[in-house]
Design brief:
Blueprint lengths: L5 E7 L4 H13 L5 E8 L16 E6 L5 H11 L4 E5 L3 E3 L3 H9 L4 E9 L9 E2 L6 H4 L4 H5 L4 H6 L12 E2 L2 E2 L3 E5 H6 L12 H11 L3 E12 L9 H20 L4 H24 L1
Parallel strand pairs: 1-2, 1-4, 2-3, 6-11
Antiparallel strand pairs: 4-10, 5-11, 6-10, 7-9, 8-11
Helix pairs in contact: 9-10
Length: about 290
């Protein structure tokens, strides 16, 4: 195979038919380019990774004998690939035609290191994939919170989740961080920051990565002219309680590292509040 222009990394865990659909969208959008794909399978039990063979020799599987998490899985994919540009995409996410070219054009800016598209739910509504740095109010005004739904135009809501205003649907902009469901990044910068922080098993590793990249002086840019469609949480649906716990553990880790590294009281308060929130979310999930 010719030297690839782009490496695609997908971390898979029981994604079912979604994985094949993701690969089909990638193959279609990259049809005029040389590309390689590595699917890092985290000990799936549904044989979803079998579909990767249909995309050989461009795509191959790396199998783990246990679920090592998203961050470590992506880092394994980085080690196994070589192209200067890296597309990180969830197995339950699909590129809409033209998305890659839009993202690559934006990534060509001299100070830009990582870009992400506008991500939609299957019903066409926006997920809010571009966001502001998390703080103590994120739990109250974050993407899925009740307060954000009730007060979408509040300053806290707008700071935590970037919303495309009328006429801005095609205007790219600098943001604090982007959802890891679909990212295009420069390999050299990912290597400089040593990839994802593997202390994050699941969730918040994307916010951490973008923050460390920005600390080096690079831009993180949101490109709403590029679109992807994402079925949120499809891969974690079979272990919902475990996913909720991982979310809150990672939220505390991010807060302790970036928001209150030397403030013991704030960290202790955050730990208590996150534990309470986690228990409530697990209890609510069990009733569904």
């Amino acid at each position: 195979m010719t030297t690839p222009e782009v490496s695609v990394i997908i971390v898979n865990y029981n994604a079912g038919d979604e994985l094949e659909q993701a690969l089909q969208s990638i193959a279609a959008d990259l049809a005029q380019r040389e590309w390689e794909a590595v699917v890092v399978d985290n000990a799936s039990s549904d044989d979803s990774s079998a579909s990767v063979a249909r995309f050989a020799p461009r795509a191959r599987v790396l199998r783990n004998d246990q679920n090592v998490g998203f961050a470590r899985g992506v880092n394994q994919g980085l080690t196994a690939t070589s192209a200067p540009v890296v597309l990180i995409i969830n197995p339950d996410c699909r590129l809409v035609a033209g998305a890659f070219d839009c993202l690559l054009d934006e990534l060509g800016r001299s100070s830009c290191a990582i870009v992400g598209p506008r991500i939609l739910n299957p019903d066409g509504s926006a997920q809010g994939s571009a966001r502001g740095d998390p703080d103590m109010l994120t739990g109250l005004f974050g993407r899925t919170s009740v307060l954000r739904r009730l007060l979408p135009n509040s300053a806290a809501s707008k700071r935590n989740v970037v919303v495309d205003a009328d006429g801005e649907e095609r205007t790219s902009r600098t943001v604090d961080w982007l959802s890891g469901a679909c990212l295009l990044a420069r390999r050299d910068v990912l290597s400089t920051v040593r990839g994802f922080d593997e202390r994050y098993f699941l969730y918040w590793e994307d916010a951490d990565l973008c923050r460390r990249i920005r600390a080096l002086g690079y831009q993180v840019r949101y490109v709403p002219a590029a679109t992807a469609v994402h079925r949120v949480g499809h891969s974690s649906r079979d272990g919902r309680a475990a996913a909720i716990r991982a979310f809150h553990e990672s939220a505390y880790l991010y807060y302790a590292i970036h928001v209150a590294p030397r403030a013991f009281f704030k960290r202790a308060l955050a730990r208590v509040l996150l534990k309470v929130r986690c228990r409530v979310r697990v209890a609510l999930a069990a009733r569904r």
